[in-house]
């Protein structure tokens, strides 16, 4: 993407991070690797976590109240990496203070809130960018490029995103469709030009101490006849030593496309434990963060500059929330859901 224009002009874009949890840390590390950006400050309600992260990354400005950060005149934008319930209120507060927003996925867990965000972006003079990172991954970008070829006509899509069991309790505050499959639902939206016609899903509880299910299989038929299958299972054996087991498969008039993550690129067996290190989403190269997250953040910064057009819109994110709601409703009510019902 190249160096940022503002950096070349001797200026820096001031970005804050709200939420210093697991993925907030990834944003912090990546921002500190990007030239032309100043990590202005971080905010978290947990003071212990806040000061631990601030000390670790030598961050001077810390806040336990997001409004105190957003009031700062020098601040240009924020990354909101908090729990899903707080997304819309924090995004609204950011726009009041004229700050641009990168809103982590899922942007919302119900269509009413997602539509509020769509209206907020339209009414505001600031950017609200959904954090759909896969659109900035080289593998998924190649999928998009392939499926856009003129002679290509899709017959079906199959997506899978399975997660180790030890991650289940960590993320079980949110239904797995929103926590995992929202990535793949966005890829379906990105690579198709049709709305769903009907949705069917089944789910299974895997831990009776946790309310949300750990397994879901879904089917979506689109208005143009495209059929999609979806799978997420939060019971991948921990011993595999990998964070995800992901597949994207497309059947086309001209052939087949199949993508896997992690692929067969690198396996490490050390001290009796197998691992497949990340080389796509947030890999470290020569001490600097690279990969899909960095590409996403650089795109957000370019949007702030006004030097590029959006790769992902809030309208697309809201459509994804609606599809996710349809899958959950079908599995809960144990029946097929017509799109008009949502």
How would you describe this structure to a colleague?
A hairpin with a 4-residue loop joins strand 9 (215-222) and strand 10 (227-233). Strands 12-11-7-10-9-8-17 form a seven-stranded mixed β-sheet. The protein has a six-stranded parallel β-sheet with strand order 3-2-1-4-5-6, sandwiched between helices. Strands 13-14 form a two-stranded antiparallel sheet. It contains eleven helices and 17 strands. The relative contact order is 0.15. It is globular. The protein starts with a helix and ends with a strand. Helix content is 34%, strand content 26%. The chain is an alpha/beta fold and 342 residues long. It has two domains: 5-132, Rossmann fold (3-Layer(aba) Sandwich), CATH 3.40.50; 135-287 and 321-341, Dihydrodipicolinate Reductase, domain 2, CATH 3.30.360.10. Helix 5 (87-96) packs parallel to helix 6, helix 6 (111-123) packs antiparallel against helix 11 and helix 9 (176-191) crosses helix 11. It has helices at 5-8, 22-31, 47-57, 66-70, 87-96, 111-123, 138-147, 168-171, 176-191, 292-305, 314-333; strands spanning 13-18, 37-43, 62-63, 77-80, 100-104, 128-131, 154-162, 196-204, 215-222, 227-233, 245-252, 255-261, 268-270, 273-275, 284-285, 288-289, 337-338.
